[in-house]
Amino acid sequence: MADFSVSTGARLSVVDVTDRVREALPDDAEGVATVHVDHTTAAVTVNEAEPRLLGDFETALSDLVPDEGWDHDALDGNADAHVRAMLVGPSVTVPVRDGGPDLGTWQSVLLVECDGPRTRTVRVLAD
After folding, report:
1. How does DSSP assign 56-87, residue by residue?
2. Residue 25 is part of a domain; what is its CATH number?
3. Backbone angles phi, psi at 58, to 5 degrees
4. What are the angstrom distances between the C-alpha of 91 and each of 18, 33, 76, 82?
5. Is 110 helix (H, G, I), strand (E, B) or coil?
6. What is the number of other CB atoms lying within 10 angstroms of the CB of residue 70?
7. Tens digit of pLDDT for each residue in 72-119?
8. Number of domains making up the chain
9. Is 71 or 121 the better-scoring residue by pLDDT?
10. Residues 6+ positions from 58 with CB-CB distance below 8 Å
11. Of 87, 67, 89, 86, which is closest to residue 78 (Cα–Cα)?
12. Domain span at residue 30?
């Protein structure tokens, strides 16, 4: 298992962490790896890291989950971040070959920040 930190710059943003996942894997890793973020207001997914698509995804999350009007906001004001993270999920499983993620041509591992800016810890567990 290896961890790495990612600093995000906005309340809602998507960061390509594929290279960091690759660095976290042992050179001889084969099989599968789980990429997990242990925060309730961040998530991980796999998709294309094209900047316009990432912007569209951020817009879609904002449109699906409004910033305000949630009961949980009475506690700490970030219910929208929790709901967005729940929709995406805290982890993904990726195939591993020759010590690196064996992703499709356009696939990347993406950290989805829903309550930034913050520093997040991403955990990579290789089996």
Report:
1. HHHHHHHHHS-SS--TTHHHHS-HHHHHHHHH
2. 2.60.120.460
3. -60, -45
4. 14, 10, 24, 15
5. strand
6. 17
7. 888 999 999 999 999 999 999 999 999 999 999 999 999 999 999 999
8. 1
9. 121
10. 12, 13, 14
11. 67
12. 2-126
